[in-house]
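fyi for ur records
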Amino acid sequence: MYTFISILPWVIGSVGVGLGIGFYLGMSRYADRDKDRVDAERESTFRVLADLLSATEQLTSDVNERNVEIKEVGQDLIGLDVDGELQVIQHRLMKQVGSVLESNMRLKDDLTVTQSQVEQQAEIIDEVRREARTDALSGVGNRKSMDERLEALLANCRRSDAPFALLLADVDHFKWVNDTHGHAAGDVLIAHIGEFLKKCVRTKDFVARYGGDEFALILSDADPETAIHAAERLRANVCQHTFDLGRGAEQVAVAFSIGVVCSRRDASAADMLALADDALYQAKDNGRNTACCYWNGKLMPVTRALNRSQGNTPKPQATAESEPSDADAAQSSATEATSDFQTAESTAPAPVGEDQDSSILPAAQEVS
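which gave:
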């Protein structure tokens, strides 16, 4: 009887685990529709499930230990040489030990099932969390996840001066793809571009769909020179690709207009997005298939910033009329793209950090 009483707390504990799971799953099912609140409740439920899983594993271990102890008691009872009334008591005790062992085995089975259910719920919640931060069409991060990453990197920049860069890349003439090949083909192209961009960055960088045919790349540990090299390589690399629209052998080539801005300690996320957007629109105004950036506080084509970063600033002209304008430089950037790209490749910094098999923008790979 004493042995049975000692097992009773573990039985009560297993019931408590089951009630706890039902309570928190019920809370999750009827959670508020508000997205931020739902995310917070998912995080809380995930932690609770992790705690319940740990408690279930501990309880299973304790039950196993108790079973070993009870079996040892049973062996001792069998080994007793008794007769008469003591033999009757021995048989009754042996029957009680067997009953307790059987109950414990059922409890162990219940705990095993409960542990499996908790693990499944944790996996479901983890999958939901990933889906809530992923753009379903392109397979990259969505606007919410981009905002979170940008705020986190800005906080790190203010704390430790860790630089990073934001690139906004817009697909040139994307409307033509929709008008010519249909919106389904446009969706296929967006999905391919998402895959292409994920291959263009290191594991610690971040890609998101900013909206429509516009994508954001956040490059960690990237100073201004690294950022403009990356932007020009990205612009040149995408021009070397064709993308299958899923309509037989039909393929299209695309180009990017890119806006580049680098982090500052005094900048907010809204500031960086506004500046990157300004640079992107300047790139489009300059004829598309080009990248613009803020270099030493001035908005200019990346090709010009690359020349200045390498000390190739043109000599002053005799008259203002002969000074080439930003628009003239942008117009000639398409013809200079090959030489600029080769210069960028030869002078680009080595991969940053521990990523040995990837660079900020690796060599072009065919995307189908």
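The chain has two domains: 2-132, 143-315+323-347. thats all i got for now
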